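hi! just following up on the protien thing from before. the input was this:
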Amino acid sequence: MFTLFCGLTLLALLTRLWTLQELSAQVLGCRLCIIPGVIEADAPYLLGVLGLFMVAGLSRRRWWFLPWRVLAFMGLAVYIADVVVMSEYFTRLKLSDAMIYLAQPAIVWRYLLNFPIFDWVVVAFTLGIMAWAGWVRPARSLPRPAVVMALAMLVPVGAIAHYVIPRPDYVHEWAVRNVVAANLPSGLAEDYSPAMRNDVAQAFGNAGKTCVSGEGRRDDIVMLVLESWSAYQSDYWSGLNDWTPRLDALASQGVSFMNLHAGGYNTNLGLISLLTGKQFALPIADPQAAQPFATAWDLPDTLPESLNRLGYHTAFLTSGNLGFTRKGEWLSNIGFDYHEGQDFPGYAGKPRYHFDAVADDVLYERALAYIDEQDRIDEQDRIDEQDRIDEQDRSAPPNFIVIENVSSHQPYEQPYTGERDEQAVFRYMDDTAADFIEGLRHQGFFEHGLLVVISDHRAMTMVSSKERQLLGQAADSLIPAFVLTGNPRQEKVDELFHQADVMPTLLHHVADDVCLSHPKRDMLAPAAGQPMCVMHARGDRRDNLDVFCPAGSGTVKVDGDDTHFIISRGLSEQRQKRLLLRIARDRLAGAHSPSP
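and the predicted 3d structure came back as:
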């Protein structure tokens, strides 16, 4: 039995080595050089798991060996789960993530069902072997002196592996650490001292809002948020792949943004940036205790609330489950008049995929119908609701409608062909999104409308060496985005922008006056705006922020008063100090916005 367990443990280690050797090839230009680092990191953990199984062999009584075996198999299962998460999402198995997902077991179960049947067979076989091996009574108990000696030997063996085996300086060191080290407390929970709070108050305390004149166009606005659309998938943005040719062609007909960064590594962080104007969300809390959309509840002057005050009807349409991570509650909290998800009655009987979502083309058909419905609402009813509308205005108040797709979320599966292929999925996303845009054009939307097409975050896949060479540090955060209006304007914007800049840009376009608490930012008139550094919350090291400025870039480790730059390129000491104070200010401001 011990031999079988050792075999499973060795197989798990070899699987992790196989997974990370591709990372090693991309980052270090070699494959086998990953082996020393993985063994050095994982040996103490795996030897500890083996030790638990050995202790179980001290007695043949089930009340003794069964608990120890369960612990050993649980340790091995966590190790294997970490390998699976790493291979699928290019991040580590995090307790904080698991708590969010396990709070919605039904949604997670449907999501897992989208993985290939082969994966399920492997999982079922492995779990069966573990259950059988855990329950079967050992033929005899191990001699206690031998067990004690073997356990004693595990300590020096683990120490030798950890301290003697040479370990290269990995760019992606976060991927090499063992699963326990990957979940150790980080600096995110460290609060700021009264002295630091005072420094922040002195630096920003007197900063009020600056008001500028807007264009007051009152156009309809549609924001299409495309799941995981990334620069490396686009020939227009990177030249690396040509998986989204129709979106690329549409982008070339409008204003496209070549240097725009996402606020974070997942959809929630992207939506926070787009809809509230916050560049990042890093709550001052233990990651295991942080709630969904932390720091972004009860915020004043969000994008939907600001547009509501201008007489807009605001709506959010997605095909996904709005109960997951309390997204529906949050959308109401930030001011949307209406939102709908997977439970829209018109989706009844339609095939479902991950997050209970229908396919993208079904979502877009519904979105076009909804937009048409809003344009046809009786004029008199809307005049009763909006006293500011006079006879010279259009028949209905303008609309702000956000549409979020789901089909391009991992695990990648083309809804109609069943292909488990990233390229096939993004070609499907490209076709359906382009068809939707052409549908808007057919409905006459661009006669009085503005369309923003933007990704929520870079895909959670491995960054290739070519992508890293082309984009550098920005490879983790750079995303495609473009704007189309009724006025022909073909322009590539190379200035530095962020998802959070979409909000002031839209307000400047539709409002007569715009009052902001930060420098003027207008993606459609970059020369008239003020340069500003932008930030991206990383998904590998959750206490790291990437910083991009016109003069340089860097990476910040968040750790309360000890927050500091661990990498800096072209940033003066004065600029670094100012940026650290800005990070502290934004995190302290977010502390007043816990989830209700």
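Residues 388-394 have pLDDT under 50 and may be disordered.
Residues 62-89 form the longest helix (28 residues).
cheers
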